[in-house]
Amino acid sequence: MLGVMDWKTRLAGWLLKRADDGTGHNEDGSPVLPSRTPADKTPTGLIQVFRAIQVLETAVSALPVIQLDDDGHTVAPYGIVRTPSLDMTRRELVQYLVSSLATDGNFFLLRQEAGGMLLGVLPLPPREVTVTDLSTDPAHPNLRYSWRGRSYTKNQVIHKKLVVNPTGLRGLGPIGSCRVELDGMGETRDFAANWRNETAIPSGVYSSDQVVDDKVAATAKQQILNVKAGEPVFLGKGLSYQRTLLSPEDMQFVESRKFDATQTARLFGIPANLMLTGADGSSLTYQNIEQSWIEFSSYTLAAYADPICEALGELIDDPDITVGMDWDSSRRSDTSTRYEALNGAVGAGWMLKSEARQRGGLNELPGIDDVTDIKEKNNAA
């Protein structure tokens, strides 16, 4: 028991005594815990913003990455594309890049080389990177990227943007561009959470049909405060008391926060059903859910996936190879519809059975393609 108490005492002393001497350690040699910014003071501390980023990360990282040659045929991926980072899996790297684009509008990849050979890339925190142009000619920029006291050239850093800003060197993102409105959403949330504890809000209102001086008012107030639960109270002097009551919906500003959720879904370009919210009076059917998902893939996910594919393509020293995402599964609402489309392509003669199996994620079967039959169909057409 003494040993346990001694351990707790030493731990409490270490937490309370954190006098940093500038070396990152305390006087007794223990490390100094880093300071932390409260999560609820950042836009990602909002439920709807966190949900939006989580949806984007999950959707883009789940897309298969493919490589295509000049003829549009899928080829075996390069090793650097399968494992672009030495410290992260490809899925984790894609999620990191999507989050960087959503929160900052930019992502930066530092090339890691040894002996002239590219080993991988290191994703840099976008808020820590400074971009400067050393050239006086806008047509021929000379960009430098500064990160933690070191400067890198354009050949060392891959920089991609979500939305191009023609008046600046950095791209634009939804959070940075609409930070004022997101801060307003946070203030509404905080005000609703602190409503009951707000000292400026009275718990009740006294009223009288007579002129009441301060002494009489103070006496009546004290009478109210001294009453125990279940006991009656008599005020006199024509005084009446009414509590300030709000419904749970009013105290939590439900309508305003519903509108905030809709605005967030609009800001990030995410369908309302994926944000677990919806507009009043809207009705979701199989057809319009499918259409909204196709639009989500084409106009939202593509904005995040295309810069990532371009960055992965720059890691390959082959101009004839293009890196892209396989959108086939994401732009078909279910397996039945996808297989029906593949069956129609094979039946029309413009897709091989082996290519259809590859699109379906199945292994190749030797001799499955009947090229003669396909040529006859094409000639008949």
SSE layout:
Elements: H1 2-16, H2 47-61, E1 65-68, E2 74-75, H3 79-82, H4 90-104, E3 106-114, E4 117-124, E5 129-133, E6 143-147, E7 150-153, E8 157-161, H5 174-177, H6 179-193, E9 204-208, H7 214-226, E10 239-243, H8 248-251, H9 254-268, H10 286-313, E11 322-325, H11 335-348, H12 353-359, H13 371-380
Antiparallel strand pairs: 1-2, 1-11, 3-4, 3-8, 5-6, 6-7, 9-10
Helix pairs in contact: 2-4, 2-9, 6-9
What does it look like?
It is a single chain. The chain is of the alpha+beta class. The chain folds into three domains: 35-199 and 247-330, no CATH class; 202-243; 334-381, no CATH class. The protein is built from 13 helices and eleven strands. The chain has helices spanning 2-16, 47-61, 79-82, 90-104, 174-177, 179-193, 214-226, 248-251, 254-268, 286-313, 335-348, 353-359, 371-380, and strands at residues 65-68, 74-75, 106-114, 117-124, 129-133, 143-147, 150-153, 157-161, 204-208, 239-243, 322-325. Helix 6 (179-193) packs antiparallel against helix 9 (254-268). The chain is elongated and about 100 Å long. 18% of the residues are buried.
